[in-house]
Amino acid sequence: MSAGQAFAVIVQRIEIQKLRHGDNLILGFSIGGGIDQDPGQNPFSDDKTDKGIYVTRISQRGPAEEAGLRMGDKIMQVNGWDMTMVTHDQARKRLTKKNEDVVRLLVTRKSLEEAVKHSMGCYPRQ
Fold first, then answer.
1. Over pLDDT 70: what percentage of the chain?
2. Which of 17, 28, 71, 104 is packed most tightly, with the most Cβ within 10 A?
């Protein structure tokens, strides 16, 4: 891709209702990545310079799974906050705020991007 060339990012909105467990609010997923982490260790991105925040684990039947979050999803926003240039700790703090019962995520997912690319290639050329 050259400079100035437009590209589309396919995003999905996911709303997770945190599960209260004693004094804790549980989301049911773990994250990896961040601008302070080694992007070469990220198994979910082909771009080994990508320092994004990725979902690395989903708890079975937990709030995240119920909401449709998937392992490998890249988190772009949390409750309106940009997550594309944050440290791992900043991302964790955004997700686990005690005064928020609901987390609204914008995520990208490889399968979404692949589906759009595939559908664009399926139209007959005139």
1. 80
2. 28
